[in-house]
Design brief:
The complex is a heterodimer of chains A (about 120) and B (about 110). Chain A is built from no helices and 11 strands. Chain A has about 120 residues and is mainly β. The chains are: A mainly beta (about 120), B mainly beta (about 110).
Chain lengths: ~120, ~110
């Protein structure tokens, strides 16, 4: 069965950096787009970024552009999110999700999330 | 990026029908997908495309679209359907924004 397991969350000071990882299993990772989605405490879902199956196409939400970098290692079945210049408003649970682009786009599998807290 | 707007909250009597709407310009070009999220849990895909349900999603969930509005309908709502629901759609710039979310209460 498809599994996505995020790691790397934690407490970081404003202006600091953090790298999130997502380990994928149960499907051919290199065949699928992948995405990061976040949810601030008590708030709605916010799409952050996605990366194509080969890594050649990447998009970011305006709120993180220039600060966050998404990447993947298909040999390791892993997705990453490098987060720099972190702000208090980046505090959220970060979900890794598979973006199924076979037909209509949808996030068909999600991890359980990892909490990032940005605070001094 | 484009915005998707949802009503903040709706309520439905047990066994009745409720429709949740999502409005946005991108919906004129792309279908929405819909996600159910219960407290403390990750979201779950319930509807995508014209009206497709992933395996394991009850057939009381259905989707439709017209113009700039997408709808999720729950026919015969059950207590376990009480949750937050979010729409999502791609836009022409490659973004995939989520809707503002709707809290569904089953009375």
């Amino acid at each position: 069965q498809v599994q996505l397991v995020e790691s790397g969350g934690g407490l970081v000071k404003p202006g600091g950096s953090l790298r999130l990882s997502c380990a994928a299993s149960g499907f051919t990772f290199s065949d699928y787009y992948m995405s990061w989605i976040r949810q601030a405490p008590g708030k709605g879902l916010e799409w952050v970024s996605y990366i194509s199956s080969s890594g050649s196409t990447i998009y970011y939400a305006d709120s993180v552009k220039g600060r966050f970098t998404i990447s993947r290692d298909n040999a390791k079945n892993s997705l990453y999110l490098q987060m720099n210049s972190l702000r208090a408003e980046d505090t959220a649970v970060y979900y890794c999700a598979r973006l199924n682009d076979y037909g209509d786009h949808r996030f068909d599998y999600w991890g359980q999330g990892t909490l990032v807290t940005v605070s001094s | 990026s484009s915005e998707l707007t949802q009503d903040p909250a709706v309520s439905v009597a047990l066994g009745q029908t409720v429709r949740i709407t999502c409005q946005g310009d991108s919906l004129r070009s792309y279908y929405a997908s819909w996600y159910q999220q219960k407290p403390g849990q990750a979201p779950v895909l319930v509807i995508y495309g014209k009206n497709n349900r992933p395996s394991g999603i009850p057939d009381r969930f259905s989707g439709s679209s017209s113009g700039n509005t997408a709808s999720l309908t729950i026919t015969g709502a059950q207590a376990e359907d009480e949750a937050d629901y979010y729409c999502n759609s791609r836009d022409s710039s490659g973004n995939h924004p989520f809707g503002t979310g709707t809290k569904v209460t089953v009375l």
